[in-house]
């Protein structure tokens, strides 16, 4: 069996999804879960992009030791320096260096000739090789690059010190057969090809990212890149959980496997979905809510008689469990701590007491406490430590069928000042959001509002997701509470806090 390395870019390419911006704590939480999932490489961000990116890449490199941590850099020396500063404390510092190679990008974006692109690529790889033990080099828009030129530049960067060569389908344009042909061509035309690993990076614009990744594996790629739930620019990246399960189920055909701990897939998927606010479609392969539901009578009958009649993947394989009641108000501190360990939530010992109090308060009001509830409240508590420009003190909303809905809100502002406003709207949420807008004295337009219960039951926690444009910046936010209105207010404030944090640590745009 060949081993295929999994390169996860949820925190870099995935975070480039429209409206997604993860904060420091959220990125760290995802990185820890990716380590449990046992991916081989985590691309933690783009250190030169912003102060915020730098800090989170540095912290992830320091903390995560079970896999290699990498960061993206353009082919400029200052990007490489920033990446080194962020990654140097990692277990195996690895640089992901890229330059565009296609004629479209060379002519319109870089305004460089083929020779100039090769010269820049070689010079920057050599510069980076003096610092980093491992350099991955990517030919941006490789799939629309002339094959002979691609082979030429790949040979040159290998000679300059690159250890992994990535062939990204940056725009999601290639078909499986063509993509496989590129790998075959490179293996036949690049003299030094046996010294390096070949990597596939596919986007899903035409719905072919998984098929393309598998075609690359058949043609000799030994690394596949992608994101959890397939999030990413435009239609997203190859979904790593789909790729890993496809390879596992069809190892008879591909004769290759990953080191991924498949049992962590379900938990990883729901964590990423929760923190990014990007819902997983019910019919999505491997992780969708309906992925294992057999609806037709004929299928149900078959599965009851013999599972394999209609079931090729078992829910247990990806760690899907029945979410039963696990803790209640009589559960003690010991049971609480044990359960957190069992479901893989890392909580420092000095925070257990505080979290146990939060748990008890909720358990008094809510009969059943499931793993989902625990995960939701723990995450919420951890995240409440993030930079908060506005904090919710109280809300009061009046609604009656023949009355004008009115909301009163009290917030604490950046300098701990007390802000109180009241406003009306044609519904409760509108009244609430009009009031919040007045409190913050900045126009916000709501793009999306979604409410979801955490688990089942009338007393379930409410999780609200919003997408809004605040001060010209699109962002998302989420809020958790037992009451839907309080959760709605928290989601709005969370989104605004993210914009204010982003403005403090300005970002530059990147592709790749
Ligand atoms: Zn990409």
Keywords for this entry:
17 helices; TIM Barrel; Double Stranded RNA Binding Domain; alpha/beta; 512 residues; globular; 16 strands; three-stranded antiparallel sheet; eight-stranded parallel barrel; metal-binding; binds zinc ion
Give me a quick take on this structure:
This protein is of the alpha/beta class and 512 residues long. It has helices spanning 24-37, 51-63, 77-87, 103-110, 114-129, 147-160, 176-189, 209-218, 240-249, 251-254, 265-276, 297-305, 333-342, 352-365, 371-383, 428-440, 484-504; strands at 2-3, 5-8, 41-45, 68-74, 94-100, 134-140, 164-169, 197-202, 223-226, 256-257, 391-398, 406-412, 418-424, 444-454, 461-470, 473-481. It folds into three domains: 2-276, Aldolase class I (TIM Barrel, Alpha-Beta Barrel); 333-384, no CATH class; 391-509, Alpha-isopropylmalate synthase LeuA, regulatory domain (Double Stranded RNA Binding Domain), CATH 3.30.160.
